[in-house]
Amino acid sequence: MHPGKMIAEVLRTIFKKPATNLYPYEKLEMPEKFRGELKFYPEKCIGCKLCMRDCPTNAIKINKLADGRFEAEIDLDKCIFCAQCVDSCPKGALESTRDVELAQLEHNKLKLIIHAEPQKKPEQ
Amino acid sequence: MISSLFYILIFPGFLFLSVFGLIAEYVDRKFYARLQNRVGPPWFQPLADFIKLVSKESIIPKDANPAMFQLAPLFALTAASVSILYIPLWGISSLSSFSGDLIVVLYLLTIPTLAFFIGGWYSSSLFARIGSVRAVTQLFSYEVPLFIGVLTAALLADTWSISGIAAYYTNHPWFWLFNLIGFGVSLTALLGKLEKGPFDIPEAETEIVAGSFVEYSGRFLAILRMAINTEMVVGASLLAAVFLPFGLMLNPVAGFILYILKVLFIVAVLSLSRTVVARLRIDQMIEFCWKYLVPLAVLQLLINFILKGVLG
Amino acid sequence: MAEEFRVPIGPQHPALKEPASFSIALKGEKIIGVDVRLGYNHRGIEKACEERTYIQDVYLVERICGICSHAHSTCFVQAVEEIAGIEVPKRALYIRSLIAELERIHSHLLWLGVAAHEIGFDTLLMFTWRDREIVMDVLAELTGNRVNYGINAIGGVRRDMGKDKIPEILKRINVLEERTKYYIEVATQETTVVNRLSGVGKVKKDDALKLGAVGPTARASGIARDVRKYDPYAAYNELSFDLITDDHNDVYGRTIVRVKELIESYKMIRQILKDMPDGPIAVKAPRKIPAGEAVSRYEAPRGELMHYVKANGTDKPERVKVRTPTLANIQAVKHMLREMYLADVPIVVAAIDPCFSCTDRLIELKDIDKKDSSVIDWQRLRQYSIEWYRDRGIDFKK
Fold this sequence. Notes:
The complex is a heterotrimer of chains A (124), B (312) and C (398).
Chain A: H1 7-12, E1 38-40, H2 50-54, E2 60-66, E3 69-75, H3 84-88, E4 94-96, E5 111-115
Chain B: H1 2-10, H2 14-35, H3 45-54, H4 66-82, H5 101-121, H6 126-157, H7 162-171, H8 180-193, H9 205-208, H10 218-243, H11 252-276, H12 282-311
Helix pairs in contact in B: 2-10, 2-11, 3-10, 4-5, 4-10, 5-6, 6-8, 6-12, 8-10, 8-12, 10-11
Chain C: E1 4-9, E2 21-27, E3 30-37, H1 45-50, H2 54-62, H3 69-84, H4 90-118, H5 122-143, E4 152-153, E5 156-157, H6 166-189, H7 191-197, H8 205-211, H9 215-219, H10 227-230, H11 251-275, E6 292-300, E7 303-311, E8 319-323, H12 325-336, H13 345-351, H14 356-359, E9 364-367, E10 372-375, H15 378-391
Antiparallel strand pairs in C: 1-2, 2-3, 4-5, 6-7, 7-8, 9-10
Helix pairs in contact in C: 2-3, 4-5, 4-11, 4-13, 5-6, 6-11
């Protein structure tokens, strides 16, 4: 029986650096495969809407703006960052980034609308 | 008259105790955090907590007895603060001393526990009642070893006055080393009085939320916490004066710094013990105190009797 | 002399991590009766599963619980694969077992910290949770997230593991093993910890069998049952490990079982990393699962987890039922608290490792006028709710 068994370890810990990550001043980097915020490549999208079908929370909506031009409306407050849409997309138009600092003070800022600019007609 | 007011209100009275209490709380929390590999609070955290508590709404429960509920923290604070007047901080005489002031100081230090009991009981909340009953049960276990432990040092010095103890040990250097067992026993019993360490049963957070303090909020809680800090400082000062009475003949500045270091050392030892043990159950605590602490205290008493006979 | 009164532990209480109500009748400090009420965390997951396709359900089922998320996800996916008759490739089974054992490590380290906090030993909490970060970092590198890993898909796993990660994982497992051995020493030799944990929450072997205890709670009473041994799933029939039992019958025994299971998990992870076969990580699964039903079992860190899935040929399941280990263990809590003190309630409840978010499935309706209560089954409840809304002008049939 040994009261105070941890005393040696605990006294040694005074000399170690604290295990705390001082968050806003020191930011940790997420590993490579981390599923953070989604990134949409509008030029690759073909409008098959497979991502919409497979999303567990209906967080992504694909709207047709014109022939061959699609825009994605992603609701960041509904997205659970499971990346099922990334796997379901046959053309690789969606990708997970490592960005995790997504908090906003206003609700409407949480809706991302991403589309490509219309291509300019070449000069005659 | 002016000088008495100065002594009572500023130094070493109320203001000094409050500031020193905040510093001692900071040392306790920072040391505790560093031992657990964390960062810990910044130096102004106890002061910030106090200001925040004072600025919040103070709620008195409907079924509580308003007079007792509000007076209990004040009793605790006053009793703990008054006892500093009898403890020599440096030099060999305290502000006012008379034969038997050791007993008076020990008695005054019991009052905060009774005040917590009264405050908890008259809160009329279930958790508060359980906590206050536990506080009084704990009182019956640690009082005896604490009293015997402190009195053994007085026995060797043949006087009941703390200033007299300081004078005796200054005249016979190195005699305080005989009292080390008593020091250990008193430190452990002091953990029970301050409700820290393995004996924080009356305010066990995971069992009865906050024990007797559960209904206190706002400025009453601020006064309660100040009372707890003052009790810690005064208890540590008492132990420092009785068991570590060396270096008392230095000039005032060095003596004062030595006193601060002694008290902070005792606070650090209390923090360390809080870190390395789990909380005991109330029946285990009673068993521990009566089975181990009291015999050790009596052993130290016997040693001091024999030494008294030998050394004259 | 000591009066009798009732103390409410819960629904909100610092001892409980999730809401549950234990109404304790006390005489002084001794417990004379306990009343358990659950259901505060009911979220209607089983019904929600029926309105989503199987692919969406994998993520929904994973979020039944944060700590044992892979357990729920794997159990569900195993049931669906059995109905559809899909043969999962070997490499996928090995990856599933790897993540399962890593999850077991993180769950047991979390439990150690929480149990230490309940007995007032915050230092052990800080230390074990600091070491748990090592496991979470490994999981984040392998799967992409620290909890709710999302690694399962019907037919295999979604992400592959490169060989270059293996040395790093092995190094971290070695660090963790050393630290775990230190925690075993602390838990068995520190006087105050042993005093708080011994003799508390005793359940004898026959009583444990009668009350239906599972997992480490049962194994600490000497019952040698582990789903990984008698009904192996994933890659467990090719791994060699010991079944840990203990005969202390109390909370101390449960601590010993969990800490020794950690050592077994480290052994298993080393075997998996050495023997992982190459090959594909998934087979293509049909979107519409043919009609059938299946029951699948899994050894979650808390005990035996069971999922029942009934398919009817469409791409949405007809019925999903989940029976979690905490529901089986909670019957034993009332028995354990018979002769204990109030101070033992938090540690006894924490010793079965309760996860009430997993557990709440049942609704009991108390009829205030008639003063009786009944348990309605799902069909009648659904009919009742449709009529209730129709009376208020909302028609779900439209």
